TrEMBL record:
InterPro entries: HPr, HPr-like, HPr-like_sf. Transmembrane segments: none annotated. It comes from Thalassobacillus hwangdonensis. This is HPr family phosphocarrier protein. Signal peptide: none annotated. Residues 1-83 form the HPr domain.
Length: 83
């Protein structure tokens, strides 16, 4: 299992379209993926879970990956929120 704190740099944060794109990318990995914000943890492969966090630009999240492709998932998803 690996964890990384990331500051979301997307202009719109993880709302609407960016959230859908993030979830789509997360679903391409077999690892279990979670996002944590303000002590609330959700499945990163769930659009409803991600939207419930209301992650805005400049906010910090904790990305957690566990599984056989965890490192690849962490790199791709970390890069995505920094675009």
């Amino acid at each position: 299992m690996i964890e990384r704190s990331i500051t979301v740099e997307l202009e719109a944060g993880l709302q609407a379209r960016p959230a859908a794109q993030f979830v789509q990318r997360a679903n391409s990995f077999s690892s279990n993926l979670f996002i944590e914000k303000d002590k609330k943890r959700v499945n990163a492969k769930s659009i409803m879970g991600l939207m419930s966090l209301a992650v805005g630009s400049g906010e910090e999240i904790l990305l957690v990956a566990e599984g056989k492709d965890e490192e690849e998932a962490m790199e791709e998803l970390s890069a995505f929120v920094k675009e």
